[in-house]
Design a protein that fits this description.
The structure is a single chain. The chain has 247 residues and is an alpha+beta fold. The protein folds into two domains: 89 residues, Membrane-bound Lytic Murein Transglycosylase D, Chain A; 118 residues, Distorted Sandwich (Glucose Permease (Domain IIA)), CATH 2.70.70. Helices cover 17% and strands 23% of the residues. Strands 3, 4, 5, 6, 7, 8, 9, 10, 11 and 12 form a ten-stranded antiparallel beta sheet that branches. The chain has a two-stranded antiparallel sheet with strand order 1-2. Helix 2 packs across helix 3. It starts with 7 loop residues before the first helix and ends in a 9-residue tail after the last strand. Belongs to the E.coli NlpD/Haemophilus LppB family. Keywords: Hydrolase, Signal.
Amino acid sequence: MRGSMLAPGIRRIACAALVALVAACGSAPVGPGFYRVERGDTVYKIARSSRQSVQNIVRWNNLSNPDAIEVGQVLRVEPPAGTASARTSGAPRSAATAPRESANASDSSSAPSSAESSAPSAAAAPSISLVWPTSGQVIRGFDGRNSKGIDIANAAGTPIVAAAPGTVVYAGNGLRGYGNLLIIKHNGDYLTAYAHNQALFVKEGQSVAQGQKIAEMGSSDNDRVMLHFELRYQGRSIDPTRQLPAR
């Protein structure tokens, strides 16, 4: 989806809708000390329920904009092991100690290392073997903000194939801004999304093989013929070109 072609409000609605969908399709349990963002959550709400300060949640997860967390995003809500603020493993946090730690959050030492400040993210995602979903020219890259995937342009009817084996969890045109859309769930909490198709050749619940034709390129809900392709890990968008072979 070319962000420059849609009004900001429509783009936000479309992105939020897809985030909610992929989160629902790939809500695997998270490990101790982490929390998966749900609809209606805020950093303040998560910090309060975890008995942490907002500053700690922001610092541990390297959040540049605390108001921009996404449904399905995994956040660290416990101090990284080995840090001064880490509490004894298995020891419960009392109501008395929580406000004290919150009040002292601003007194923490200098900025944490990257290992301490990052929640499980794209960098920590296990590798997935992808093939290019179609042929053509990449006309827009991934930036994680305005573009949640890549755009590949070619002629109408160009075959679209499954980038990896998996199960179709969505096939339809109910998400504004994405046109005829397919979402495939793969092993390891990965999902791929294929938007603006001219025609769909698979249905929800159907298993597909890597390289299998699943659609044809089109311009549904868009101003030009192209494929908008997204890769998500645990509900969070990551750059698909890092998992695609060089060409």
